[in-house]
Amino acid sequence: MAILHENRLLFNSNISVSHSGGNLSSDSGLILVKEFMHTINFSNILKQNLIINDNRLYHKHTNQAIIEQIIFQLIGGYQTDSSADILSKDPIFQSLLAKEQLASQPSISRFWDRLNQENIFQLQEVNQILLDKVRTARNTTEMIFDLDSTHSDTFGNQENSNYNAHYQTNGYHPLVAFEGLTGDLLKAELRSGNVYTSNGVADFVQPLFDHYQETVPVSSILVRADSGFATPELYELCEERRNFYVIRLKSNRKLGKIAEQFISIDDQHDWDRKEVHYASVLYQAKNWSHSRRVCIKSTREATELIARHEFIVTNLSEDISAEAVFQTYSKRGTMENYIKEAKNGFYFDKTDSPRFLENHARMMVSVLAYNMVNFMRTLCFTKETKGFQVSTIRLFLFKVAGKLVHSGRKTSLKLSSSHVYQKLFRKILWNIQHFKWE
């Protein structure tokens, strides 16, 4: 007779299943993340820059340990705080955090309650310090700021949750900036759901300009954004700081008439062939202080009579063709993949708390988790695996069965002998341990 919580299998009644394996873990591969975090000095950076007002007279878990635990849970694929109650005795999590028991769900909830607005700024500062360290290691001198907004669903009467007409649902409307060449998440800001896309974008991006032009100088910055960010305040800020931009413009009647001037049709026109024409003009909208270069792409599909026009405003030199400008802008599409990765892989849009500030803090911790894996992937993975998404990384490397074996003063982590990707695991571990930080 099967004991409690034990099940007999129908295909083979001699096999019974129960969650009583003891000192085993299915997340042994997270030691790769811990090893990378150790080499980048994450714990000390967090301790020095995140100061939380803590009035607890007695506690088992420091704020730093709790936030590291949350990051490991997110990277491991555990999106709910309550996962900690099951993982509390997981030997790998205990080893990663050097604790006999993890913080419970109530402890994590009380942690979120202790955070204030200053802590949000501090989490961004921690992220910036890590970004600077990684950028120095990459030895890159050019950057692309890909700006966008996205949506985070809310459920119930959560603070600052509002209806967004574009997404046709209630929620928040975060503003994000990714580095277009590496996928690093440079900055994120949670906003009310009914805030328009470009609202506050200049205040959002200006600190990044200041940092990368004064504190950690780069040779050039290019800003890419869709038509939601086609606002003079962003153009003028880029021009003032001598940064480049390629920003999509919404079509209007005047621009349409200008574009039609570049389309020529004669009696011998081949209507069965697709046509694409590029042009560049100086154009000044009513709310612009001066004229700016607008690049035009006119596309007529085969058998169609009317061309479809697209417009990009830019301050790139006329030496760069309109076609090259559109090609540069088109690469912005990878940002949509970055946003999906942050949401689906690291629960960037998780809004479990009733308070707006707590949800903002959750988002910032997801930013740290996303970047930690992205740093490790781009710096220490093999050439063939640098493009892996986190779902694949978890399957190949993180979700590995293992057992901690203690003997005297030595502890051994014995991973599954049947781990299919053990060769890749060992290679990445070697790369992490031998990576040279500047």
Automatic annotation (TrEMBL):
Top-rank lineage group of the source organism: Bacteria
Pfam families: DDE_Tnp_1_4 (PF13701)
Domain Transposase DDE residue range list: 9-436
Membrane-crossing residue ranges in chain numbering: none
Entries under InterPro entries matching the protein: RNaseH-like_sf (IPR012337), Tnp_DDE_dom (IPR025668), Transpos_IS1380 (IPR047960)
Name assigned to this protein: Transposase DDE domain group 1
Organism: Carnobacterium alterfunditum
